[in-house]
Amino acid sequence: MADSEPGIGKKILSFFIKEGEEPIRQAAPTAAAANVASEAPKPVIANTAPNAAGTGNIDKKFTEHFVGLLEKANLPGPDYFEYKQALQSMEGLGLGEEKQFQAAWASFKAMGGVKETTVLNNSANQYLGILDKDRASFLKDVEKAIKDRVGALQDEQKRLDDSNKAIALQIADLQKKVDENKNRLGQISGEVAEQSAKINANKDSFEITYLSFVDQIKSDLNKINQYLK
């Protein structure tokens, strides 16, 4: 894909987003989401998928993140994305799925004289590799965030619990300290639950958005290998 092609990010976005669909909103929008809302309307993903915590969805900020990532990594010359664009142009022509993939392949070959589907497999796999590498980096950040935010609170919670066991054995003059520590423990429990929910919800949203991209590309690869023999 040529870097100089205008609006390539918008084209990539259109491969994974259907026009006119309404976004799924989080219950409490972030500041970044509020800023996005002030911009001109853009197509957004409205798909959902099950996840372990039940708190994730395809998130607009992660969608735009992946689009930007793929846009920066686009390859010179015709590749998977040009084929995807040709395939998209076949919609609404009344062709079956196999015919659409074959007709798009014929159109794609006319672009740059490509003869083998290897270029599609290689470029699509390269984009998958970029997405996987980004996911690995993101999960490291998640792990660090949990350790820094939640781990510190849990350490404090344990330390105060141990302190209370000792204070309970002390004379009455220490009772005030015991009460103060109990109050703080109550606060920590709420903070642990809140921070864990926020981080895990963000992680789940990333995972669902990531899977929507990976599943689409893998599905296309399977059909390319099935139909374009």
Give a written overview of the molecule.
The protein has 229 residues and is mainly alpha-helical. It has helices at residues 8-16, 31-37, 60-72, 80-88, 97-112, 118-167, 175-227. The protein is rod-shaped and about 90 Å long. Residues 1-6 and 20-53 have low confidence and may be disordered.
Layout of strands and helices, then pairs:
Layout: H1 8-16, H2 31-37, H3 60-72, H4 80-88, H5 97-112, H6 118-167, H7 175-227
Overall shape: rod-shaped
Number of helices, counting only DSSP H or I runs of 4 residues or more: 7
Q: How many extended strands?
A: 0
Q: Between the first and last Cα atoms, what is the distance in angstroms?
A: 23 Å
| Helix and strand sequence | HHHHHHH
* Category by helix and strand content: mainly alpha
Provide the low-confidence segments as ranges. Answer: 1-6, 20-53
Quote the beta fraction. Answer: under 5%
Please give the share of residues in helix. 55-70%
Main beta sheet, described? Answer: none
Mean pLDDT: 76
Radius of gyration: 25 Å
Write a compact overview of the structure shown.
The protein is mainly α and 229 residues long. Helices cover 69% and strands 0% of the residues. It has 7 helices and no strands.
